[in-house]
Amino acid sequence: MYKVRLYQYSVALGLCLAVTGCKAPAAETNTNALSAAVPQDFGTLKSQDTTNTATLQWKEFFKDQNLNELIDTALKNNQELNMTLQEIEIAKNDIRVRKGLLLPTAGIRAGAGVEKVGRYTSQGAGDATTEIKPGVETPDPLGDFTIAAYANWEVDIWKKLRNSKKAAVNRYLATVEGKNFVITNLIAEIADSYYELLALDTQLDIVKQTITLQSNALEIVKVQKQAARATELGVKKFEAEVLTSKSLEFAILQQIKENENKINFLLGRYPQEIKRTHNDFLAMLPAAVNSGIPSQLLMNRPDVKQAELELVAAKLDVKVARAEFYPSLDISAAVGVQAFKPSYLLTMPESLLYSLAGELVAPLINRNAIKAEFSSANARQLQALYNYDKTILNAYLEVSTQLSKIENLQKGYDLKSKQVEALNTSIDVSNDLFKSARVDYFEVLMTQRDALEAKLELVDTKKEQLNAAVHVYRDLGGGWK
């Protein structure tokens, strides 16, 4: 009677403890209320035209065949991109792992052993008086041979395993978007370097033309010195100016070499000459861009989509952590044969073994560790939310900045072109006046120096114009499709 009551009390106590263990804290993070919606326009163009350059493939956006060949090579050989592809493979395998946890685990077990127990124990005394069959006692020591199949299965009552698999799927999709983001930036970086290479080629030509012009002026001042119309000071000043321009020529050559090596690195190959267009660089026009509307960034920008998927995965992680507070149901089963001699293994039904058990386990003592993991999951979810907001804000500001830059660069380029045109005219005028000794050599030097600086700046402005169009294409989310 007492044993029955004790058993009943034990069951009741166990149920109470299980219910206590099932209590999980309420969610600490509300991610349903995201940041404010993005503005209706980019602040520079008050247009609701949804035509978006990001929908163009990069082969359609870039018209230079040499540049397209470089990009195509990079997409095959770039090491960073190939490393990102391996991250996708890792994430894909993680899905397989999570999916496997939903299914029972099964295996075959075979074993052999021997056991010798003391005669003056309950088991030893029992074995000494037990007969396998009349006249045959239990052998001592006792062997143990087993061949059995077994299975274990955790029943996913609270969707813990399914949510874990869903989180892995979202992280896999996030790595795919991460790969797309790498592609977008890789294409933009190659285009930037390519246009910079074209700009350096043009600047090198300008410097060489300037050296020729300065050398001609040097010969004139030498003749004037012989005619006592100029001094040694003027000769040395012109010589110094020629040497300065020649040193600038070698500096540009070094920059060209460094830029070629940078492109080769992005292409995953050893140094070689970069095939490029040698047309009039200043006559090149930036690609036309249509920014669309800001809300399209949510669909086109890979980094925004990646942050969104990571946020979804973080939400699922919270559900998984919450499920740790609830009891888990494990079912195990086994079937096979077992005997103390191998010859008895096929003796049925005496050697047959089987088992079936269900186990309900609820956390009681170690709840603090589970609470800590749940709090960490909530913190990671909040962190993912902030990252999502930051990514959207950064995307909007990048596009807004580049659109404004395109507009201002065009105005600056127009003014700089007029400045170069005026200085080219002033060079011809100053040379004519210098030949007739109507102006000092110093005015000729300053005019040539100002013209050189203005021409180099004009080339830089053209390069920035071309790169700004590339950056808008990148910031809108173009290039990966």
General description of the model:
- This protein has about 475 residues and is of the alpha+beta class.
- The chain folds into two domains: about 25-100 and about 170-325 and about 365-475, Up-down Bundle (Outer membrane efflux proteins (OEP)); about 105-155 and about 330-360, Outer membrane efflux proteins (OEP).
- It is built from eleven helices and six strands.
- The chain has helices at about 1-20, 60, 65-75, 80-100, 120-130, 160-225, 230-265, 295-300, 300-325, 365-435, 440-475, and strands at about 105-115, 130-135, 135, 140-155, 330-340, 350-360.
- The protein starts with a helix and ends in a 6-residue tail after the last helix.
- Residues about 1-20 have low confidence and may be disordered.
Summarize this structure as a short list of keywords or feature phrases:
alpha+beta, 2 domains, disordered N terminus, Outer membrane efflux proteins (OEP), elongated, 63% helix, 481 residues, 4-stranded antiparallel sheet, two-stranded antiparallel sheet, 11% strand, 6 strands, lipoprotein
Radius of gyration in whole Å, from Cα?
A: 40 Å
CATH level-two architecture of the largest domain? Up-down Bundle
Strand fraction band?
A: 5-15%
Distance between the termini: 77 Å
How many helical elements?
11
Oligomer state of the chains in this structure: single chain
What does the largest sheet look like? 4 strands, antiparallel
The residue ranges in which pLDDT falls below 50 over 5 or more consecutive positions are 1-21
Shape: elongated
